[in-house]
Amino acid sequence: MPASWHKHARVNVLWRRRFRLVLNLMGVAVFALLGAAGFSQAMDILPALSGSSVDAFKVVWVAATAGIALYAVAASVVLVRIRRNDSLSILQLRQDRADAMARIDRLESLLETEDSLLLVWDGEAKHPGVAGHLPENLELAGGLSQLVEFETWLDVKSAEALRAFLEHLRGHGEVFRLTLTTTDGVYLEASGHTAGGLAVLRLRDLTGDRQLSARLAEQNKELREQISSLHSLLDALPGPAWQRDNHGQLVWVNSAYVDAVEAESTRTVVEEQVELLEAKGRNKLNMMRQTDGVYHSPMPVVAAGERRVFELTDVNSEHGNAGLAQDISELERVQGQLRRTLESHTRTLDQLQTPVAVFGADHRLQFYNAAYRSLWDIDQSFLETKPEEGELLDALRAARKLPEQADYRGWRNKHLECYHALDAQAYWWHLPDGRTLRVIASPHPQGGVTYFYENVTEQLDLESRFNALTRVQRETLDHLTEAVAVFGSNGRMRLSNPAFAEVWGLSQEFLEADPHVNDLLDTCKELMGESDRWQELARGVTGLSDNRTSVSGRMERIDGSVIDYVTVPLPDGGTLLTFVNVTDTVNVERALHATNDALQEADQLKNAFIQHVSYELRSPLTTIIGFAQLLGDAKFGDLSPKQEEYTDYILSSSSALLHIINDILDLATVDAGIMELEISEVDVAQTVSEAVEGLKDRLVESDITLRTHMPEGIGHLKADERRLRQVLFNLLSNAISYSDKGGLVDISCQRDESEIRFRIKDHGAGIPQEMLDQVFSRFVGRGAGGNRQGVGLGLSIVKSFVELHGGTVDISSAEGQGTTVDCTFPLEPHVHSLEAAE
């Protein structure tokens, strides 16, 4: 049943319902009008009937009853007709629905009878509707829901092609038909078309002959591609290649074949059957072919007008034959030269005094010279049997001619590993008779090893003595404080010591190149300027006079250094130059005067610095702090929250700056030697408590626990109480800064007969070993974790104040484990002077 008919039927039913509603409304209106008219007429006749015997109310009631009855009769008639019409419409719709379902069943049965599957997309819908059933040879683990995931059940090429065609079908309505291959090797026919605005994809199994035809077409395509690739490969070979049919006719040749027969093209060769081999060569090829139909042998051939030697490979089969020729003319020439070279080398090696032995890839002796037989004193008849190297080594060991080995078999196996080595290897053999051999094993690329046996006994003895003498001389020169250089008779440097390179600032690369004295003169001009001293030394080195005399003198360089030099003529024509840097000796008096002047000037600068800091920085800063405190006082007016925050920032920053200035003043006072300690009896426990009290806010802010280990009866100490408290405050502040949030800091005190030791220990990040030597230096600070790095004066002040009391400071740390600082104060301090503090 067409969908348009159902649509019209639904429209008709709707209009009927609306019509019935209108009729009902009209009936009600009509009867209402009739009732009103009757009532009005009854009211008109009531006065007339008032004087009669007729009851007026009964007349009205009768009229109303008649109107209602009339309305009921009319409504019943209308309802009966409407119900009869609705029943007929319902019967017609049921008949239409049954006809439509029957038609749908027939269409579905028709689809089921055919081995195909329909996928239908409506507009831009992502998922299609499915009709039909899957082909028998197609099995999907995910069922119909896996159909649109083409990559999961089709091979890559088929999936990509199908998805591209579907996009064109749905986007432009382009129909298509193609053959698909599943991952299981099943062939499917896919066709796509449009119907009534729908995109329809039909998948059909190619069974029987159609599948066989598709499979053969696919195989045929693959074979053509393989043959094309094989022909392309053979066409790229430098040697001729050909293919014949079962009648012996050429059907294909490569480009090298065309060039060899000097033809115009491949087509010309095939049409004219131009042969590369002569008739005699072809007959030889057919006669000498092996039982499996393969011929492989060298053959002379005239190619491109030249007579050359080719390595021919021709394979015969029932479908024809194919051949390949490789030009080996150059190989034949090289092999001939190699044979002649080997014969010449054999004659040469036999005349050498160096023992030589050649072993083949089978480990058997192939060649030896007279020196080899003389070295080992072996019976020639034994060598003529070409023994294996293992047998030869066993024989030499039995005759006690090989080096003594605790594990001879392991040594023998390791020695034979040279057959598998890639590079030449050298061994040292110390024979029982006192001789030392240097054995060189040179492996052949084709297999085998050539051994050279060099007797180096005397050479090693001479070299040992010479090296010992050279080392003595070298060590002597290298450890001299004087700069020494030796020049040969040709004016080139033969040796020098490190002091020479240091005095003249020369690089090791320059000295290793054995520079000429003139090159050395050019290099040293930057230090000597226009001085003629080096010119005099150069003439003394390169002079040819017989009576050479020693020359000595003193030169002053541009950099202010003073050098004493001496030249000594050597018996072999060389010259020895020595240089001594006497700059320190010459400048010592100047240095003493300059130092005295500098000390006086430094003292004046320190005093001026203290005065400037005290009055030019400290006084204005105190004023800033005072006015900031006044601004924060409520008596002088209320401030906004932002102004109060900024005022707090001014106070905290000013206090920090004042603390830094005080630290600088303390250091400057210590350096100037004017620091005066106020020695008094100090309650140790109370001083520690006061120092801790000043850090409570920081402890709470950093969530750090401070543990105090103070033994009872720690007693008193003679010291400057304010400076002692400052030392403890700086150490505890430093420990808190370098501790992690929620960490732990310990302070302990220990007393003995002569001193009191304070120990502050944190468990924070620690200090690297390379920085431990710098922690007490001024303006050296290091950030810890997220903490801000300080100016680096705290530990420097600690060290200065402790040493002024005559005490010591020790620090130890390990990264990740924390830092420990020990401060020791004597019970009876001897206040140090400025010199002692420095």
From TrEMBL:
Keywords: Kinase, Membrane, Phosphoprotein, Transferase, Transmembrane, Transmembrane helix. Its EC number is 2.7.13.3. Residues 612-829 form the Histidine kinase domain. GO terms for molecular function: kinase activity. The chain crosses the membrane at residues 21-39, 59-80. InterPro entries: HATPase_C_sf (IPR036890), HATPase_dom (IPR003594), His_kinase_dom (IPR005467), HisK_dim/P_dom (IPR003661), HisK_dim/P_sf (IPR036097), PAS (IPR000014), PAS-like_dom_sf (IPR035965), Sig_transdc_His_kin-like_C (IPR004358). It holds the Pfam family HATPase_c. It comes from the Bacteria. Gene3D superfamilies: 1.10.287.130, Histidine kinase-like ATPase, C-terminal domain, PAS domain. CDD domains: HATPase, HisKA. SMART domains: HATPase_c, HisKA, PAS. It catalyses: ATP + protein L-histidine = ADP + protein N-phospho-L-histidine. It is an enzyme of class 2 (transferase). This is histidine kinase. It comes from Pseudovibrio ascidiaceicola.
